[in-house]
Amino acid sequence: MTDDFDAGALGVLDGSLKGFPPASVGTDAATFLAGRPALADFTTPLVTLDRSAVTDNVETMRQWCDRAGVGLAPHGKTTMNRALWQRQLDAGAWGITVATPWQLSVALDWSIPRVMLANALVQPEHLRAVGRALDSGDAEIVVWADSVRAVQIMSRVLAEQPPRRPLHVLVELGAPGGRTGARDQATALEIAEAVVASPELALAGVSGYEGALAHHGDDGSLQIVRDYLESLAALHGALLAGGRYDERVRTLIVTAGGSAYFDVVAEVLAGLRDLDGAHGRAVDVLLRSGAYVTHDDGFYRGITPLGRHEGTGDFRSAIHGWATIVSRPEPGLALVDGGKRDFPFDEGLPEVQGVRRAGSAIVEALPGATTTAMNDQHTFVSLPPGSDVEVGDVIRLGLSHPCTTFDKWRALVVIDDVRLAEPSAVDAVTTTFG
Length: 434
Hints:
Blueprint (H helix, E strand, L loop, with lengths): L6 H4 L18 H6 L11 E5 H18 L2 E2 L9 H9 L5 E3 L2 H9 L4 E7 L3 H13 L3 E6 L2 H12 L7 E6 L12 H12 L4 E7 L11 H23 L9 E5 L6 H8 L12 E6 L11 H5 L15 E12 L2 E4 L14 E6 L6 E2 L5 E5 L4 E4 L11 E5 L4 H4 L4 E5 L9 E6 L4
Parallel strand pairs: 1-17, 2-9, 3-4, 4-5, 5-6, 6-7, 7-8, 8-9
Antiparallel strand pairs: 1-10, 10-11, 10-16, 11-15, 12-13, 12-16, 14-15, 17-18
Helix pairs in contact: 5-6, 6-7, 7-8, 9-10
């Protein structure tokens, strides 16, 4: 019997999935993986998901949020996988955040009880679909707005056939040089007033994304993030003091926080959380970190808040790439059979973590080896002088940026623990990226 992922949904394997061995074709995927085949039996290129690391990461984040006094609405765009979302929900997540209206429709199809669209919803057909969901279902749907125009579109389309429940809207505050979001408090307040004026909408809180304002963990970057979050708190305070929030909203939302600065978000905003409404309106403070579920061996490893604070636990990378050396055309150079179509490259090239010699199941260290470039289907590996790796050996790669790892794979093989001498496959996760 497999674990609690998606092997059963794959049905009979037909050879169309990268990494699955040709001998598995014609076999039921769940039956094949229930036999715990050795990782070394799979073909390359391959990306694996470490079950033990995922389990540890979800629990580490749960404990961190509990200590910090914040809630969590993890960003589902990272994985677009129902089973991984469910693990996050089971660990106490408020709901799931999505990035696009199409992802919102997927979340509703998957019966996610609470969904936050961290974006404006201005496409009429998607608005009509959301209106139908509000009218016929019980899912809680929250969207953002950063312009009066967006509010007008939402109000006009929903007014065509008013749903029985209003659409909850958060005013998004940005900052000059950032991504989306109103660029100043005055504009944000105008947007809020437009929401208040619409019977089909309910002003439910404020939102923002600090990750677009900084890209490092130095003191200057952290102060930029802190200043921005204080302005977000001030906007919430102004709306609260002015009585602008909709009485139909049971719990207001203040949300920020990607995977890079969630510690600063908690530092600045956690004090606003008041789940019982002891000081007036009930307020939840929600992080939206998503990459933590798999972490990585690149960008997030370098900038994670857990690396800035002792005694907070550690995330472990749960994603690894595997590629076979197919050419040694020059001394000190190896070409492997996985490239940009298989592994992420937008937040740094993969790192060489070891080599599995042909015919062996054990990964050995390979000090001094680095990746230097990637083509569509090849990665260039620079080898130290005298390296004896050969064509047919398999390189293990640490990957940077899970969001652009998952979207390259229809199914990832789940292994028990990459730290074992001979890891075994135990399940698979499927992805939904359109």
